[in-house]
Amino acid sequence: MPLLGSIIKKVIDVSGTLNQNSNPVKEQEEVLMHLLKTAQDTAFGKYYGFKELLATEEPVAAFQETVPYFDYHQMQERWWGQTQKGLPDITWPGAPEYFALSSGTTGKTSKRIPVTDEMIEAIRQAGIKQVSALANFELPADFFEKEIMMLGSSTNLQQNQGHLEGEISGISASNIPFWFKGYYKPGEEIAQIDDWDERVKHIAENAKNWDIGALSGIPSWMELMLKEVIKYHGVNNIHEVWPNLQVYTSGGVAFEPYEKSFNALLGKPITVIDTYLASEGFLAFQNRPETTAMKLVTDNGVYFEFVPFKPDYINADGSLCQDAPVLRLDQVEENVDYVLLISTVSGAWRYLIGDTIAFTDVSKAEIKITGRTKFFLNVVGSQLSVNKMNQAIQELEKQFSIKLPEFTVSAVKENDEFYHVWHLGVNEKGIIENEKLAQALDENLKAANKNYRVARSKALKGIKVHTIPLDLFYEWSGANKKKGGQVKMEKVMDEEKYTAFRDFVKSHL
């Protein structure tokens, strides 16, 4: 009997029971009060009068009335640029040791987001909460003695102006507790390899030396890694290499579009648990098996606000209009798309993280990620969110029995008429004709979105579909120095990016 696993499982069971009862609304109020009190003597806190806000009868309302919304560029230009130069006490007490590099999916240059000691501790505590939640998933005791493959970015952090820089997964992995290092794979030496392909090569070569019970990472890059391991060892599925693999914690993007292609790499079903770890913090994780939704971490260094996701509130560059209404956790409704704002122990304030979410259960503070503010196609009023696109693609997979884990779309004007041009990534030989796919996709979108249906009867002429090898999506990311780690593929491209992508595809076919 796995003695150590049994002990760990009992501890997790007890911890999970203790964490069942919480009051997310009250926890959020306490988090905001802590943030305001801690930062009141920073340059930001003095500028916006945090001491005065705290003295009002309703500090939450006063905070919302006084502090504007910020996207990264506004935060960087007005505040974080000073922090990066080494000036202390700008938006959070002291000076951060780390900056998380995040080019996101649309940026041309890396963003540098401060990561304070308090944030590293908050991420660690959120990780412990997620481990405690495993008590709800009825995993066997021996699972807790297996190793965990954490496929993030390189832990080889770079020095810059007195601080260290890297992607958040690399920063987190470089700060794992000493007791966890025995479970962590691919291990410190391989994790420090900067080149993604070289790192995956070493993982494949060492794969049979490890007893992997769980995987963690973004679905697209996890699939690529698993394919390389399977190919290197000449087997049919990953369970022939890691027979005890039982859990996959996905993160950062919706798992559903990848579900079909991911499951094709397995020899038996595994438990998939969603997480929401962004460059700005560990925001949510799946807390129970009855749902694929994730519970917001409401008591741990992040204060959440929600703006209804409507075209009138979104500027052309994806930022928020300052007069857009905002809601607290106790004011939101289920099944409504919201733009997510966060204030954090890293000194982000009313910060537009760029994601849209919807609540599946308000009382439990459970959400699902529905898209990105910049991945919103509203040319001629079509109002297509990534969530609606994903649903239409999944329906396409069912209709034609194919796997379409990656896609991108752009609105293109041809002869004074607008088209939505889709590129679908496929592996299968003899794929269905593009015209048939376009017709079916068009019908799926009409059924899923009233605004799209209206647009198609007016200014939106139609859909064009191009099927391309799936690997071209990943090579495109590599060509833009964004391969592996936290990188997510652009689901919607503007005209400039689409032209570059189209030319890239043509040159590689």
Automatic annotation (TrEMBL):
Residues 389-496 form the GH3 C-terminal domain. InterPro entries: GH3, GH3_C, GH3_M. Keywords: Coiled coil. The keyword Oxidoreductase does not apply. Residues 297-363 form the GH3 middle domain. Signal peptide: none annotated. The keyword Coiled coil applies. It comes from the Bacteria. It holds the Pfam family GH3_C. Residues 431-458 form a coiled coil. This is GH3 auxin-responsive promoter family protein. It comes from Mesonia sediminis.
